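Researcher: Predict the fold of SoxAX cytochrome complex subunit A.
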Amino acid sequence: MPGNLKQGIYAGLIFAMGAAAIAGPEEDRSALRAFYEQRFPGVELDAHVDGAYALDADKREQWLEMEDFPPYEIAIDDGADLYETPLADGSSYAECLGEGAPVVKQHFPRFDAQSGQVETLEQRINSCRTAAGDEPWDYLGTRMSSLMAFIAYESRDETLAIEVPDDPRAQAAYEDGKEFFYTRRGQLNFACSSCHVSMVGNALRAERLSAALGHATHWPVYRLKWKEVGPLHKRFIECNSQVRAVPLEAQSESYRNLEYFLTYMSNGMALNGPASRK
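Model: Structure tokens for SoxAX cytochrome complex subunit A follow.
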């Protein structure tokens, strides 16, 4: 069977399983892991936390050399200072983020029963700020990315443990994120799954297309083209723009649901952010 046809069948099976009423989040996660296990039999599933560098030995060597002097270190230091700075009412992020803080990234995004929506860690940080009388930060701004880099660094090696509770609103949010992942959009008619499932491992210009498995483990990321540390939603915006679709706002409900789905798919994998990427 030709390789491309085989890949298309695998991707179709995953979509069919995802779309079926009987397929829940855990069935989806198992199907996606099985797909990548068959697609890349020589690659350990956990290695996908390194993105495309799990699939290209030459690029991985260059990336590891860059990690010797990680360009995100300044952001971590700045984030540590922000974390220790008292909020307007004298309280702290540690008190607001709760038990285990700052090691909390493994539990976000999460479903918030009070609002009935997915809550990301960035939203939680801004909730801490506004409750204390501070102004919320720009979700794409430097201060938010720096604090997220510090929390991600402190949370390294923790295992992702995202829950989709037995609540119809949580199930709906998860399904909405899954639908976004598999829906084609834009003038180029590409879905997230087009690059990261159907064509995963292939070269797109000079880059290797990474697996969706592990996509949520390493953010925020210092991208050479950004020349700064940025959040996952900035990458969503960039991806949508690249396929000539109208991007959504960072932290929009659809992007939060997409993050919820993607992060659940990486459940059981170790956090390794922040990271550097080309």
